[in-house]
């Protein structure tokens, strides 16, 4: 089984980025249903993992309010495909 990872976020809107509290990720343009997301710090450590299988909204709110300032990566999971989004916390 192959895993497809993409950093092309042309079909995802992320705002505000950078942020001081949280980012909203609009996934309405994606063809696949997002089943979960993981938030990673710059060292690759998982900060949080959220299951979205019962989510009906096409906007994901990623809370960074308790995280230190820095760069984070949000990995969206959709079947065997994944999309990585870089976000900055001020």
Written account of the structure:
- This protein is mostly beta strands and 90 residues long.
- The protein has a single domain, classed as Immunoglobulin-like, CATH 2.60.40.
- 0% of the residues lie in helices and 51% in strands.
- The strands form two sheets. It has a five-stranded mixed β-sheet, with no helix packed on it. Strands 2-3-6 form a three-stranded antiparallel β-sheet, with no helix packed on it.
- The protein is globular.
- The model has no long low-confidence stretch (mean pLDDT 89).
Biggest sheet: strand arrangement: 1-8-7-4-5
| CATH architecture title | Sandwich
Proportion in helices: under 10%
Number of domains: 1
Number of helices: 0
Order of helices and strands: EEEEEEEE
Low-confidence stretches: none
Largest sheet: 5 strands, mixed
Inertia-based shape:
globular
The multimeric state of the shown protein is single chain
CATH topology, anyone?
Immunoglobulin-like
Under CATH at level 1, the class stands as Mainly Beta
Strand-residue proportion = over 45%
The mean pLDDT is 89
Number of strands: 8
Gyration radius over CA: 12 Å
How widely separated are the two ends?
Answer: 38 Å
Q: What would a concise description of this structure say?
A:
This protein has 90 residues and is mainly beta. It is built from no helices and eight strands.
